[in-house]
Specification:
Shape: globular
Order of helices and strands: HHEEEEHEH
CATH class: Alpha Beta
Helix content: 25-40%
Length: 116
């Protein structure tokens, strides 16, 4: 298995049905947190401020977003349909993708993890 070293390489290696979604998530993060730095951590695309505040990943049937949002109760309630067992988010690829909700997640995680 080839070691992924850039987000571009990760997206290129992903299934074609996931690539556009991954590009859009990346763009949302860049738009909402322009000071964030791209990185690969745990072989996943990630963005960091002082530390990594968001990871995203493509799987066969969903896109995962990590870590869970913990400090915004209203947003946490809106994310219930997408929560995995550990609270991480799983967005099915076959459904219309909730990019506006992803934008809210990005903002919340950047705020939450910039203070840690």
């Amino acid at each position: 298995m080839t070691r992924i070293t850039t987000i571009d390489a990760y997206i290129t290696a992903a299934a074609p049905k996931s690539q556009g979604i991954l590009r859009e998530i990346r763009q949302i993060i860049q738009d909402e947190v322009p000071s964030a730095t791209e990185t690969i951590s745990y072989q996943l695309p990630a963005f960091k401020l002082k530390r990594v505040f968001i990871y995203f990943a493509a799987f066969k049937a969903h896109i995962g977003i990590y870590p869970p949002v913990s400090q915004d109760e209203r947003l946490r309630a809106a994310l219930i349909p997408y929560r995995g067992v550990k609270g991480n988010l799983k967005f099915p690829i076959v459904e219309p993708f909730p990019f506006d909700l992803i934008r809210q997640v990005v903002i919340a995680l950047a705020k939450e993890y910039s203070h840690r």
